[in-house]
Each structure stands twice: as C-alpha cells, then as structure tokens.
Amino acid sequence: MQRAMRLLEAVASREHGAPAKQLAREAGLALPTAYHLLRTLVHEGYLRRDKGLFFLGEAAERLSSSGAQQKRRSTVSDALAHWRDSIGAPVYYAIYRDGEIEVMCIADTPGNPAVEEWADFRETGHAHAIGQCLLSQLDEKARRDHLDRYPVQSITPYTVRDNDSLLRRLERTGRMEPVIERQEYALGTVCAAIPITAGSTAGTMAISLPSHQAGRLLPAARQLQSEIGRMLGTLAISISI
C-alpha cells in the first residue's frame, strides 16, 4: 500500500505525466516492482497510461475531489462556529441550487438554539430571511418560477401576504444590504441574512435572535457582514459545498 501511494504521489507531482522508469526512481522502487504496481493502479482506475506516460485516473481524481469537498465543508463549519461564538447567535449558511433553497450548515448552542424548522424551509422561502435573501439575488424570471412552485402562504400574522407584495419587497432590496425579517417565519424570532455570491451561485449567511433582542439584530448582522468580508477569499472556494 505504501509503495503504491508513493507512486501515486510521484504521478500527482507530474502534471504532464511521467514514464515508469522516472516514477520508479522517484518512488525509490525497483523497476519490476514499479511496473507491477503501475499496472495494478491502471487496472483499478487510479492511473491511466497514454503513450508510455502515466497520469492520475478518474478514481484518484474522485478521491481528491472528495477530500477537497470535506476540507471545504470543514472551512465553512469552522467559520460559522467562530461567528456563532463572537456574535452570540446561531449562524446559518444556505445556497440556492437547482431551483431549491438548501440550508447547508448551522452552528448553534443549547443557550442560543437555531430556529426550529416547523415549516419546510424550502417551501417557505418567502417567510424567512434566508429565503428572501436568496430570492433577492435571482432575476425576476427565476423568482416568479420559484413562487409558482412555492406560492406565498401566511405562516404567522406577520408573513408577507401575497406574491406581488413579496416581489415588490425583493425589488427594493439593496444588492449587499442585510435582509431583515421579524417574526414572519416563527413567532418570537427575528432574523437577518447577508447575501453572498460566488460565481453564479446565490448564497447567504444568516443569524437569528429572540424577538426581545431585536435591537441587537442589525448591529449583529453588520458584524457578521464585516467578518465575512475579511474571510471571503477563503470562503469563496467553499461556497458550493
């Protein structure tokens, strides 16, 4: 296993491929042993051979991609936990993908619990700050498509009343302004969401607070926005976990 790994590492360091003799030398292996292992790695899909040169195969690239994805998930999770502790509020990360709202990660504590998903977040994007923030980043056609599938419905006495009212509100939302929602999704809770866009993916980081702490909401949202700005370079690669 160790010898095969040394060969894989040698191939990975050669973007334009390398012949067996060179790989054997770099991995510190006898040529017959290297040939045997290389054939096995090609058969298993970890390497591919082209005109006498060896390159990483699909199986190795899948492993690499999976590892990178885990690292990206860890980066976002660590960032959310840091902000949760520094702001003193649950922090959420969500994206809009394939026409759906996806809450990817939540960092909370027993003392500051996340909002209970008592009505499906995907179907109630009109009612919570996360959904409103994501919808505000879409073009009008995509917004209307979403509302055709998930029309506005009253969840609390504070929920926006109809599709047109929501569309007007979204139209007025400033491009990088926090989206504020007060008890529209859950009574006793206020939320703020910060827009994040990486490439064509609409994303958001959000916080929630008990309604008696509503005065903290906007300052906390500004703090989150400032901290996201400092880390955006790191998070940009992680945005589409």
UniProtKB/TrEMBL annotation:
Domain HTH iclR-type: start-end pairs: 1-58
Keywords (A to Z) from UniProt: DNA-binding, Transcription, Transcription regulation
Domain of life: Bacteria
PROSITE patterns xref list: HTH_ICLR, ICLR_ED
SUPFAM superfamilies xref list: GAF domain-like (SSF55781), Winged helix' DNA-binding domain (SSF46785)
Span of domain IclR-ED: 59-241
A Pfam family recorded for this sequence: IclR_C
UniProt protein name: IclR family transcriptional regulator
Source organism of the structure: Streptomyces lutosisoli
Taxonomy of the source species: Bacteria, Bacillati, Actinomycetota, Actinomycetes, Kitasatosporales
